[in-house]
Amino acid sequence: MGNIMKKVVVFVCLFVNGYLSFSQAKEGVINYQVEATQMDTVVVNAQPNLVGSSLDIYFSEEKSRIDFKMNEMMKVSVILDRLSNNGIRLFDGVIGKFYITGLADEMGMVPQKTENEDIQLVEGTKMILGFECKKAIVKSNGVTSVYWYTDKLKFDFSGHEIVNSNLPGFPLEFTTLSKGMQMVFTAINYSAEIENEEVIFSTAIPAGFQEIPEAVKGKL
């Protein structure tokens, strides 16, 4: 998959893992479209690799699932069941179908806020999915991100640190610029109901998947 795909997967996991425990909203799904722009010629083929990509976040009181599709090259899923404390990551792509299992508590952890992180709440609003969103600019470790967040969606992050713990709402759009590649995630759908919950939140190993071998880990 190369370094570009690895950076994308890491960024998505860092962003969404903090939102895997919801209380006031009992269940739902948020779908994001993903756009990538190559800002620097140092990063080769970044934009074509991400055309047609999407991010879906499913959540209930005790369970969550993240699906990140990188066009037709790979789909990465992270499924956590906090009731049983089981978790699984699935990689389905051109190099094969693989899984990693573990404890939900460990697979849902993210790094703490860094000391050199700078968060600026900026004037201005825009509407996304009918919600009024406000703007925040975050700079951390050489990466600049722009969030459009709403305070109308109330979630309890109960013990799971988000990347930007001072962000006063839930992001419905976020942009990150790192090492020549800009990615924009925009929410295009929000539903308070989930169809086929048993299938969506299952941590069972799907048919056709094999445990990820050491030789493959470096390619993901």
List its salient traits.
outer membrane lipoprotein receptor (LolB), chain A, 15% helix, mainly beta, globular, 220 residues, 12 strands
Quaternary structure classification: single chain
Number of helices: 5
Number of DSSP-assigned strands = 12
CATH homologous superfamily label: Lipoprotein localisation LolA/LolB/LppX
CATH class: Mainly Beta
Describe the structure.
The protein has a single domain (2-213), classed as outer membrane lipoprotein receptor (LolB), chain A (Clam). The longest helix has 15 residues, at 2-16. With 220 residues, it is mostly beta strands. Strands 7-8-9-10-11-1-2-3-4-5-6-12 form a twelve-stranded mixed β-sheet. Strand 4 (74-81) and strand 5 (86-93) form a beta hairpin. The chain is globular and about 50 Å long. Helices cover 15% and strands 46% of the residues.
Quick structural gist:
The chain has 220 residues and is mostly beta strands. 15% of the residues lie in helices and 46% in strands. The protein has one domain: outer membrane lipoprotein receptor (LolB), chain A (Clam), CATH 2.50.20.10.
